[in-house]
Amino acid sequence: MHIKKVAVVGAGTMGASIAVALIGHGFPVLLKDVNQSTLEAGMARIDRLLESRVKKGLPPTDAQKQKAALLPTTDFSRFGEVDLAIEAASENIETKRAIFADLEKHCSQQAILSSNTSGLSITRIGGFTSTPERVIGLHFFNPAHLMKLVEVIPGLDTSEETVSAALSFGHALGKLAVRVEECASFLVNRLLGRYMNESLWCLQEGIASVEEIDSAACRYVMPIGPLALRDMNGADVGLAVACFNYQEYGERFRPAPVLEEMVKKGLLGQKSGHGFYLYDPQTHRRCGVNPDIESLLSGFFAGSQRRGEPFAVERLFLPMINESFLSLSEKVCAAGDLDPALMAGLGMRKGPLALASEIGLADCLNMMEKMFAKHGERFRPAPLLKRYVWGGRKSVI
Predict the structure, then answer these.
(1) Residue 341 burial (10 A CB sphere; 0-12, 13-18, 19+)
(2) Among the options 114, 115, 116, 118, which is catalytic?
(3) Hey, is 253 helix, strand or coil?
(4) Helices (H), the chain
């Protein structure tokens, strides 16, 4: 199936960014939101994104042409014209149920119906329609007009024709389009969650400070530290995702209690002006570590009586590496796609499988076994990693 015209449902931050990615690659776009005010707010976001692109070198005439390819609407009357609809509404299953009912009613029987959900079940969403074979996940990474990754997630009943068309569409947008089999939080966010959570445990246990953790991660392989990233995304959002993953995957995803305490105290990050760091209320720029963090942490250890365990940056990434092996054993993605997806989606300079090879698979296993003895389920070694070590493998691919 050749996709020529696309609809985006939801003109919020993500929907607007997706729309800019689409018009930037020549796709006419219907952009829908629930009422005129929210639609106008979305169009204003798109104007700002296009203005930013002009400042970076996009010819103004090209920006005007792209804007002209965008048709804002508050109804579904022209959705019969599109080949693909992308739902980009809030992460609420009942909201998606209502939207997909409308999409099935107004789109042609040949149109692909997709969701930009970051972790909800595509099979469940497909079940809201009578044609689940044409329902698929298209998980763009924020900001969608800049980030190079799109995860393509089939549900149980998604047809191979739909998968093929979705992958081709991702490539047409200049993205790395990676097929990811359905699981909670899919691939990149699933692995990211393990690393983010471990940074909180390290902080809570008192083995490293906020700045030490973030600086070490950046020196090692990341473009931004995990605690700064948590502030950027919001502690409340992070807690909701962490609890969801814990519910779906069990003990190894147990959220560090410090995150819930931060949410209770309103230390949400940039949105509240204070999280792990303080932020200027006008510019939202970081203004140093939040001194309230130390008093909050004192509830988890008495005064200076902190653990004597030295901090090693590898500890942050061992859970991510382990989850990579668990994902490969579940055939969530092709082995050759895992590192490129993490690099494109998170900006890592090296993916977790490359890191495992550099550390040494046997050394990874040895460190995990020691950490498992001390910290429990977060470090239970993946059976596939054990098999690679027992088989004398030096790398995964």
Answers:
(1) buried
(2) 118
(3) helix
(4) 13-23, 36-55, 60-68, 93-106, 122-126, 160-172, 188-204, 210-220, 226-233, 235-249, 257-264, 292-297, 314-329, 335-346, 352-359, 361-375, 383-390
Structure-token pair, residue 110:
């040949």
Residue ranges making up the domain that contains 198: 188-215+223-297
C-alpha of 21 from chain center: 17
Which residues are paired to 70 by β-bridges? 29
Q: 87, 104, 151, 205: which is the annotated catalytic residue?
A: 151
118 included as an active-site residue: yes
pLDDT of residue 303 exceeding 50: no
The residue with tokens 């010819």 is 59
| Residue 198 annotated among the catalytic residues of the structure | no
The per-residue pLDDT for 302 is: 53
In this predicted structure, what is the pLDDT of residue 308?
62
Summarised one tens digit per residue, pLDDT across range 235-259 is 999 999 999 999 999 999 999 999 9
Regarding pTM above 0.90, the answer is: yes
CB atoms within 10 A of CB 295: 10
In the set 116, 121, 185, 189, the catalytic residue is: 189
**95-108 pLDDT tens trace:** 999 999 999 999 99
Task: Report, as an integer, the average pLDDT of 175-202.
Answer: 98
Specify whether 382 is located in the same domain as 335: yes
* Mean pLDDT, rounded, of the chain: 96
What's the number of domains the chain is made of?
A: 3
Residue 322 lies in a domain: yes
Report how far residue 395's alpha carbon sits from residue 353's, in angstroms, rounded to the nearest whole number: 8
Q: Which of 141, 285, 342, 317 is nearest to 217 (CA)?
A: 317
Same-domain pairing of 198 and 130: no
320 lies in some domain: yes
The Cα–Cα gap between 194 and 255 comes to 9
Catalytic option among 116, 139, 198, 274: 139
So what's the pLDDT on residue 309?
Answer: 77
